[in-house]
Specification:
The chain is α+β, with helices and mostly antiparallel strands and 411 residues long. It has ten helices and 15 strands. Strand 14 and strand 15 form a beta hairpin.
Length: 411
């Protein structure tokens, strides 16, 4: 433990994390031993049957699908200045009886930047996609893996060779479910969702300043975005999607622990949810002011170039963006989706806009009353209501209402 902690900048914080993880595992071992002492080999038989049951459930769903090949290509924005071009994540899903194959041939080659996705993480992303589409009540275990086959050519970005860098692979991994959902949307009309924010939008601020016995502070936050819409539901706003599940960091908690950071804004970003009969979820806009000199900023994100896509006529959601507002002259500079170790001065502001999500279905089929509610709640602007949904909203500065005659002509 000392060796690990001595190689971190914030050993007190990491000691708490590692101790919690070890303690949880030890409790897990204890509970398994207690269960086996009570039930003996019946416990092992039940575990084995549960795995087999999950495989049967997946194969039963696959057997109902039309045999054929279903393909989709989505894109990672790239990776900083070294890799500015888009990186395709291509999948061909083949259904043959109750067999299901995911083939990533044609996906971008591995790169010399830390977004390569190790094969076990690719397996996890496919696993997630299958469970999300085929039944949330299917037990999550190895049986799902038994029911599928994955082809990921060695040396591609979702099956890199050693020693490829992988430290920031999550944004690339997020694109795997997006591509699978895009491919299988035609045969899963009730469970497929539009593309969500599809990123792990990360803000890291580091500088001098003791927290406990640590001599520096490292503020690391993952900011949520829009969730995809579906055939029957609007997308959720300000949520993590796919494999990410980090918590929401309240402003009060942030400022209590990190006294050199002031949160100036934390809100849902209007018009970032893609228009549709079912609207995509909204992204977030968050501003953090730096209260001391010599702080370094790192921002990691994606879908800054490629917007989250919609389905069945739904429009794309808003893209993400990183900005720096200079204390010196108030100028606003847009930064890249991979920005590392940018020096900040006291008074500088970091503005993070996370991607929204795509809409589902024709926006002009969304009931005008729902559009009015979106406008009142600040989720959709009056202009977007008119231009994207065909709903004319009028206001006296306080109250909003639908202009029925104008709406009829727009629709």
């Amino acid at each position: 433990m000392d060796l690990l902690l001595d190689n971190t900048r914030v050993p007190q914080e990491r000691e708490g994390d590692l101790t919690a993880q070890m303690s949880a595992n030890l409790i897990g071992v204890q509970r398994i031993r207690e269960a086996y002492a009570r039930y003996g080999d019946v416990l092992i038989d039940c575990m084995s049957e549960l795995v087999t049951y999950s495989e049967r459930r997946v194969r039963a769903v696959v057997a109902t699908l039309p045999d054929g090949e279903y393909s989709y290509t989505d894109y990672v924005d790239g990776c900083g200045d070294k890799y500015p071009d888009p990186l395709p994540i291509k999948v061909k899903v083949t259904v043959a009886g109750d067999d299901l194959t995911f083939d990533f041939t044609g996906t971008a080659a591995q790169i010399k930047a830390p977004i390569n996705v190790p094969y076990p993480c690719t397996k996890a992303a496919v696993f997630f996609s299958v469970k999300a589409l085929m039944g949330d009540d299917i037990p999550a275990n190895e049986g799902i893996n038994r029911a599928i086959k994955i082809i990921a050519p060695t040396g591609c970005i979702v099956n890199p060779t050693e020693p490829s860098p992988i430290g920031a692979q999550i944004d690339c991994q997020q694109r795997i479910p997006d591509a699978i959902f895009g491919a299988l949307a035609p045969v899963f009309p009730d469970t497929a969702t539009t593309a969500g924010n599809g990123a792990c939008t990360t803000t890291i601020l580091a500088g001098d300043g003791a927290i406990g016995t640590d001599s520096v502070f490292i503020f690391h936050e993952v900011i949520a975005g829009g969730g995809g819409a579906s055939r029957k539901f609007d997308g959720l706003s300000g949520v993590q999607v796919n494999m990410t599940n980090t918590s929401n960091m309240p402003i009060e908690a942030t400022e209590m622990e990190f006294t050199k950071i002031l949160a100036r804004k934390y809100e849902l970003k209007a018009d970032t949810g893609g228009a549709g009969e079912m609207r995509g979820g909204l992204g977030i806009e968050r501003e953090l002011e730096i209260l001391q000199d010599d702080v370094l900023y790192t921002g990691l994100g994606d879908r800054h170039k490629f917007h989250p896509w919609g389905l069945m006529g739904g429009r794309e959601g808003g893209a993400g963006a990183f900005y720096r507002v200079s204390v010196k002259d108030g100028s606003v500079t847009r930064m890249g989706h991979k920005t590392t170790s940018l020096p900040l001065r006291k008074g500088d502001v970091i503005r993070v806009v996370t991607p929204g999500a795509g809409g589902y279905g024709d926006p002009k089929k969304r009931p005008a009353e729902k559009v009015l509610k979106d406008v009142i709640e600040g989720k959709v602007s009056v202009q977007a209501a008119r231009e994207q949904y065909g709903v004319a909203i009028v206001s006296d500065g306080i109250h909003y209402q639908i202009d029925e005659q104008a709406t009829a002509s727009l629709r």
